Amino acid sequence: METKIFNTDQIAEAAAAIQAGQLVAFPTETVYGLGADATNEAAVKQVYLAKGRPSDNPLIVHVTGEETVKAFAQPLSDKAEALIKAFWPGPLTLIFALQPGKLSSAVTGGLNTAAFRNPDNAATLALIKAAGVPLVGPSANTSGKPSPTLAKHVYHDLNGKIAGILDDGPTKVGVESTVLDMSTDIPTILRPGGVTEEQLAAVIGTVQSSHHKVGKTEVPKAPGMKYKHYAPNAQVTIVDHEADWTAALQWASEQSGTIGVMAVDRILQAHNLPDNVEAFSLGHDLTSASHRLFAGLRHFDLESPVTGILAQGFTAEGLGAAYMNRLNKSAGQQHFTN
Ligand code: TXA
Ligand code: MG
């Protein structure tokens, strides 16, 4: 089965496929999601198969507003209401305790909580409304690969495995949503993302981050955070300090194969790039770098294969927390040392 590309005036066809229990990838402001009817257990199970995803890793339920959340979750707290008002639609996923028996354990991975998100993309909101059901949606990549920020990335990973892809061009944010657990006494960030810790704290006061180490070990609370992620074929090495690029490029020039370099224009222009270096621009700042990070990793997998990748690090503050979380995973924590 060849996967069909739907454009944004073919919402009705895409919705019909969802209603028939088929899988349709959909655009969001963060990355593309792999959609299925969240109330159809057989369809949800197909999502895990298509992605090659471990079945204990729960899925986000995509909704068009808080009404659907209330049909599944326990009554929402004032803090939850305030967050929804401030950040939905947008890159914030909220985890709530569920009413018993309302969502299949295929969605929740057997937990008594579920993750909900209202994505900021008009085509996808129209798709959910036309289908008349909420959509599960993990990122629409093969498990372990960088998340897709273009329809062609989805096509590469999932062609033949899903019915269709709703194509709405490049996603805006480029890194996935912030996952915030509202089922704990103190709201806890399980995954940093498009909404920063500072923005959350400004609305509801104290939030904690599960990335802060407990003793010496870091315990991943979002099941998905324990898996290897975002990995291109070539080893990624992070260059944290601007002053290290001279030495890093010297190292690149001594390698036998081609080395990919991902950095902002200022850095690319400040150096004479060795002949065996292929550059991928991250634009001019942290925002454009987050938008292009996954596309760059995929570029060096598919379009311009390399034997190693040097990628620019940023300070892990604000959106930088999400950027560095993803980059560290893709690099297996490998940093350039001079
Ligand atoms: O931006 C996004 O969030 C994208 C777009 C498509 O919406 N979706 C996405 O889904 O990144 P996924 O499945 O790749 O990541 C969801 C994360 C996983 O780490 C998963 O373990 C966690 O959220 N999660 C989902 N439900 C959970 C729950 N009930 N408790 C704890 N973690 C949960
Ligand atoms: Mg994912």
TrEMBL record:
One term under GO cellular component: cytoplasm
Location (main, coarse): cytoplasm
Source superkingdom: Bacteria
Pfam family, one: Sua5_C
GO MF assignments: ATP binding; double-stranded RNA binding; L-threonylcarbamoyladenylate synthase; tRNA binding
UniProt-annotated binding residues for L-threonine: 30, 62, 117, 177
GO biological process, one term: regulation of translational fidelity
UniProt entry keywords in alphabetical sequence: ATP-binding, Cytoplasm, Nucleotide-binding, Nucleotidyltransferase, Transferase, tRNA processing
Annotated ranges, domain YrdC-like: 8-195
Positions contributing to ATP binding: 53, 57, 113, 139, 147, 191, 230
Reactions this protein catalyses: L-threonine + hydrogencarbonate + ATP = L-threonylcarbamoyladenylate + diphosphate + H2O
Enzyme Commission number, as recorded: 2.7.7.87
Free-text function comment from the UniProt entry: Required for the formation of a threonylcarbamoyl group on adenosine at position 37 (t(6)A37) in tRNAs that read codons beginning with adenine.
Family of the protein in this entry: Belongs to the SUA5 family.
Name used for this protein in its record: Threonylcarbamoyl-AMP synthase
Species of the source: Levilactobacillus brevis (strain ATCC 367 / BCRC 12310 / CIP 105137 / JCM 1170 / LMG 11437 / NCIMB 947 / NCTC 947)
